[in-house]
Amino acid sequence: MLTGDSGENHFARRFSHIEKELRVNERIRISPIRVVDESGEVLGIMSADEGRSLARERGLDLVEVAANSRPPVCRIMDYGKFKYEQSKKERRAKSRQHQQQLKELKFRPKIEKHDFEFKLRNARKFLIENNKLKITMVFRGREITHAELGENVLHRVAKELADVGLVESGPRLEGKSMFMLLTPTTPLPKKKEKEGGSGSSDAKETKGEADGSQPGQGLESLPKGSPPTEKGVRT
């Protein structure tokens, strides 16, 4: 029987990483295996055939969740439901990720004060939302002969936005336009959780995951230093 950190204490920890390609039912070739039921209770060490028989009796699947353990750990679960819940969580996580975009604002060398302030507010908003910002100075006609006027405006923009944006490149002149690229320096503001703890959506989601979507559910409840309970297993 395994002892120490590689034994029972190992199974007292939740499986924080599950391999993407799990072996299920007949694909489990190694024997013996340690079997955990759908409620998280350790049934003990048995042959792979015995584990599959137990799973079939319950109308569920036998899934290898810790191939590197000795013996490997397999859990009885509804594998189809588990895959569905995993894909739902991945889609939720992906939808919450903010995709950084490149925004652009155009200025003129002789821009009016109110126009400058309006564009500056938009620039600040884009950077706070964690987007990169391209500032384009547009010259018309003979304005290009006084490119320093446009450059001064760009430097002024960079100075006004110094608290939320960092100059990544520029100003640089290309043809009849001058460009400057700003990158955000402030992270996205965190959403405040509702007071009271139990009412937060994150808490509910965490609870939901613990209730049924994680293959390692319930293993943390095993007492440390004591062997797992083995039911219906021949020694």
Describe it:
- The protein has 2 domains: 4-93 and 213-221, Translation initiation factor 3 (IF-3), N-terminal domain (Ubiquitin-like (UB roll), Roll); 102-184, Translation Initiation Factor IF3.
- The strands form 2 sheets. The protein has a 4-stranded mixed β-sheet. A 4-stranded mixed β-sheet has the order 5-6-8-7, covered by helices on one side.
- With 235 residues, it is α/β, with parallel strands linked by helices.
- It is 32% helix and 22% strand.
- It has helices at 8-11, 48-57, 79-96, 113-128, 147-160, 201-213; strands at residues 33-36, 42-46, 61-66, 73-77, 102-107, 132-138, 165-174, 177-184.
Topology of this protein?
Elements: H1 8-11, E1 33-36, E2 42-46, H2 48-57, E3 61-66, E4 73-77, H3 79-96, E5 102-107, H4 113-128, E6 132-138, H5 147-160, E7 165-174, E8 177-184, H6 201-213
Parallel strand pairs: 1-4, 5-6
Antiparallel strand pairs: 1-2, 3-4, 6-8, 7-8
Q: Total number of β-strand segments? A: 8
| CATH class category label of the largest domain | Alpha Beta
Q: Do you know the CATH architecture of the largest domain?
A: Roll
H and E string: HEEHEEHEHEHEEH
Widest beta sheet: strand line-up = 2-1-4-3
Shape: rod-shaped
Strand proportion, as a percent range, falls in 15-25%
Roughly how much helix do the residues carry, as a percent range? 25-40%
- The class by helix and strand makeup works out as alpha/beta
CATH homologous superfamily heading of the largest domain: Translation initiation factor 3 (IF-3), N-terminal domain
Q: Please, what is the average pLDDT?
A: 77
Total number of distinct structural domains: 2
Gyration radius, in Å: 30 Å
